[in-house]
Design a protein that fits this description.
The protein is mainly α. The chain has 2 domains: about 50 residues, no CATH class; about 55 residues, no CATH class. About 35% of the residues lie in helices and about 5% in strands. The protein is built from 5 helices and 2 strands; from the N terminus they run ββααααα. A two-stranded antiparallel ribbon has the order 1-2. It is elongated, with a radius of gyration of 38 Å. The N and C termini lie far apart (about 95 Å). Keywords: Membrane, Transmembrane, Transmembrane helix.
Length: about 150
């Protein structure tokens, strides 16, 4: 077994390899009898120089560029996400007065912990009426806690 040079990538590979381990180029069929006739008395040599090209293997030809561009490949999740965003944009939830609705979780949390969650009502789209209820509830709880007997 000797090291030979791959005709495609010019890297060293085994002479017994069926294909190049670096680029995958197929190697030519070598006669098995030559290896058997050499016998065990002759030692294998290692070659570090370049060898001539293997004429039994056809040369690779360059393919001319395609006139039309290849389609973009995107993961399925990206297409699904784009369709979901388009569907959400079409069905925008808006109250009759044009303000955004207060979500259920926000209603519950403003009732239970108004000191923290009432600030979410300051986001764009909430009406003055919604903010008045939220901050009014906060003010009422602050007033009730300050008037309680100690």
């Amino acid at each position: 077994m000797a090291l030979i040079e791959c005709y495609e990538c010019k890297r060293s590979i085994s002479s017994e390899a069926q294909a190049c381990i670096h680029c995958g180029a197929p190697m030519a069929e070598q006669p098995v009898q030559a290896h058997v006739q050499a016998g065990p008395a002759q030692a294998s040599t290692i070659s570090f120089g370049s060898l001539p090209r293997n004429r039994a293997v056809p040369e690779a030809a360059a393919v001319p560029p395609v006139a039309e561009p290849l389609p973009k490949v995107m993961p399925a999740a990206a297409g699904r996400r784009r369709r979901q965003q388009a569907a959400q944009a079409v069905e925008a939830h808006v109250n009759a007065d044009g303000s955004r609705p207060v979500e259920g979780w926000l209603k519950i949390m403003v009732f239970l912990l108004p000191m923290v969650f009432v600030w979410f009502l300051l986001r764009n789209g909430h009406s003055a009426k919604q903010r008045l209820f939220g901050f009014g509830w906060l003010g009422l709880l602050i007033l009730a806690s300050s008037l309680s007997p100690k």
